[in-house]
Amino acid sequence: MNSIDALIALLSKLPGIGKKSAGRLAYHILESDRSYAQLLAGQLAALHDIIKHCSLCGSWTESDPCPICADSTRDASLICVVERSQDVRVIEDSKEFRGRFHVLGGLIAPLEGINPDDLTIGRLIHRISRENIHEVILALNPTVEGDTTSLYIQKMLEESPITLTRLASGLPVGGDLEYADRLTLSRSFRGRIRMER
Amino acid sequence: MNSIDALIALLSKLPGIGKKSAGRLAYHILESDRSYAQLLAGQLAALHDIIKHCSLCGSWTESDPCPICADSTRDASLICVVERSQDVRVIEDSKEFRGRFHVLGGLIAPLEGINPDDLTIGRLIHRISRENIHEVILALNPTVEGDTTSLYIQKMLEESPITLTRLASGLPVGGDLEYADRLTLSRSFRGRIRMER
Description:
Largest interface: A-B, 42 and 42 residues
Oligomer: homodimer
CATH class of the largest domain in chain A: Alpha Beta
Number of helices of chain A: 8
Largest sheet of chain A: 4 strands, parallel
Shape of chain A: globular
Helix content of chain A: 40-55%
């Protein structure tokens, strides 16, 4: 196998990149300035040495604790529970939340062999018992796995005095009623909001 | 800028990869085995040192001349002219052509500042005059730039005794007449083929 084929084979292992796209990317890199390939290679080679899990919230970070956990201006009584580190970025971009995070590292999915013990749920319970937490917001995907995980955490915190909430589920902003699926529609009915007059 | 952001910025420079996709790729790489990132980094770092242009046909290759030009079982009297090195791969995959190639390195596009002198057209004419070529097949994209380039090469070879052909243009196999654009339809009419009875 020659170098281009080897590169294409590696690139096509990335999510959403088929063999054709991988070929296009490889040739693009080849035809770009070599400094681009060198920069990209350098970032990739160093990535796993530089980026670690935050020992508090579990999200990817260069410094431990991560900038969010280390930020004393954030509300330490609020924890937002997410599936993956990427979700932290999405929520941070929305600028909607000023508390701290907890990254589960996945969702409960027995069929795929992912059990509660494979996630950081134990550490979440531990954090809640030790830190001075008032509210835990579950920001998990509105899927079967997300709902299962939310219910499991709800059960684990049955005895806890904290407030447990989950993100509203319903029609996406800018979406079209006509294209909403039955479940989303049903959730947006059950979660309907009273309009003050 | 931290390492993940730097990687995302680099990845989002690739064609067809937006900022969101780049983020997904970066996190996927981070969550994959580190050996994958190392392998990919190695391929990228070495790419421009290993891959060169073939001094005969101009396509990307590890050895010079490239395996296709060096293959004495191929028909040396047949040259297929393509825009880019990737096109060689596509045509090779079709197993339809057993001659050699000539890579132009682009198409004539005056508005983008690409003139005949920026391409390897001169070298093509030189090859045709020196090698024992019977037929030159123009396999350029059926676009304005492709047609302009084909016409230019046709003009340059006016005096030459070789046979000059171009790929048939028409309805794609599996396509739907209803969705064919006017130009494609008009070309498939003009290029219609007599059915023997």
